[in-house]
Amino acid sequence: MKRREALKNIGLTLGYTAIAPSALSILQSCTSEVKTWTPVFFSKNESIVIKELVNLILPKTETSPGALDVNVPEFLDLYAFKAYDDKRQKTYKAEIDSILNELPITELGAEALKTEDYTTLLNTYLKPSKTEAAQYRKDKNLTYRALQNLRNQAVWAFTTSETIGKNVLAYDPVPAIQKGCISVNEATGGKAWSL
User: InterPro entries per the record (predicted)?
Assistant: First the structure.
């Protein structure tokens, strides 16, 4: 998937979201080393699958870090554990299970999956034809909804991380002046605002 397309599509559907203080504290707490991450909500297989999917949705590029660089999987795990009530946690688990059920996981576990397995899944559900997408919605396909939600959450966590907010997007915590009717290139060098 192309990062720009993913961000553009998500930006169109998300609108403006107010971040609760608890979400900000969770974002700030997700600064651990990936190698030492122990999931608190996801199972081992779930954490591997989530990590691989968000890495494909938001990969590292020459100009910006990827989802794994800003600990998006860790944030999603901690957010589901701390912010979701029991009902939402149960629904979220069902969504994640539907994703795992679509993957060819053997007795070796999710570690044995190949990038092609994830790419096929993402292409099937995140790049469907209009007819297929309409059918997924009509059938209330859980995997389709789960991957849409995962993509939305990953982009939200990515764009609200401190690293992206300060180093990739235009950042001015206390804007001193207002300049109307100027181009984005003139105002920020072509970058979107992080705040």
Answer: Gluconate_2DH_su3
Q: How far apart are CA 47 and CA 110, in angstroms?
A: 9
Q: What's the pLDDT tens digit per position in 61-75?
A: 998 999 999 999 999
pLDDT at 180 over 50: yes
Q: How far apart are CA 12 and CA 9, in angstroms?
A: 5
Q: Which domain holds residue 105?
A: 44-172+179-188
pTM for the structure as a whole: 0.75
Q: Would 7 be classed as within a structural domain?
A: no
* Position 90 confidence tier, pLDDT thresholds 50, 70, 90: very high
What Cα–Cα distance (Å) separates residue 74 from each residue in 11, 39, 98, 118?
A: 22, 7, 20, 19
Count of the separate structural domains present in the chain:
1
d(CA 74, CA 137): 29
Q: pLDDT at residue 39 above 90?
A: yes
Coil, strand or helix at 2: coil
